[in-house]
Structure formats: C-alpha cells, structure tokens
Specification:
ph1033 like fold; 137 residues
Length: 137
C-alpha cells in the first residue's frame, strides 16, 4: 500500500462537499509530476485530504477506489483522474504549522514540494498526521 496527499482549495472543493458527495474523481490536475502521482495510485491506497490556500491543514483521510483513467473534464489524453471516497474526518485538523514544527515530519513532501497538488508521502508521515488528527485537543 502507498500513501498520498491531495490538495484542494476549500472554496473550490471542500472536505465537507466530499463527505456529502460520498466519492469524487480527482480532476483538474495539469502538472506532469502530479499527474504521474495519480497514475501511481492503486486501489486501496490511502490519501490525506489537505485544504490549501485557506485553512492550510489536513482535514481527512480518503481511499483510492478506482485507479487512473481519462480525465472526463478534458479531451486531452495526457490528463487522468482517480476515484476517491472519504474514510475518516480528522477530529483535529493538522495545520501546516504543526507539520513544519513536528520533528517526526521532517522531510515530508508537503513541505519540500509545497506547490505540488498530488504527492506521495511516507507511511511514517501518514501515520503521524493521522495520529495528531485523532488526538483530543
């Protein structure tokens, strides 16, 4: 199993909308590295959902339920989507500030490649963020 992080600006597509929808295809990726990461996702992989721009926090965990296929929002064959479903809302969203200040998360791709919208993360980083999000404030 692999672990990933996807970013969404909450005013464009929020975690709350994702929960209401019950699943979504992850579209609109127009960066080759992010696209290649979508292609690397396998059914059953777990994905952190990060609110970017406003919020700057990991708010939930989702799961890949369908591997990559042609992005239905474009006819350009270069772009793909994956289907995701929500798995867990984090009781305490984990802020970028917390992530940057936690030595267990040193080297996490979210900080190293801050502009990338779809990224692979290490299991230890995934587990640490989920643990932080489950702890009582």
């Amino acid at each position: 199993m692999n672990y990933w992080l996807v970013k969404s600006e909450p005013f464009k597509y929020s975690w709350e909308e994702f929960l209401r929808d019950g699943w979504t295809y992850w579209d609109g990726v127009r960066n080759y590295q992010a696209r290649n990461n979508l292609k690397g996702m396998k059914k059953g992989d777990l994905v952190l959902f990060y609110h970017s721009n406003k919020g700057l926090e990991v708010v939930g965990v989702s799961e890949v339920i369908r591997e990559h296929y042609q992005d239905p929002t474009t006819e350009d064959q270069r772009w793909v989507v994956v289907d995701l479903k929500p798995v867990e809302t984090l009781e305490n969203p984990v802020s970028l500030k917390q992530i940057k200040n936690d030595e267990r998360l040193e080297g996490i791709s979210l900080v190293r490649q801050s502009r990338l919208s779809v990224m692979q993360i290490e299991k230890k980083h995934f587990d640490t963020i989920v643990d932080l999000g489950r702890k009582k404030a």
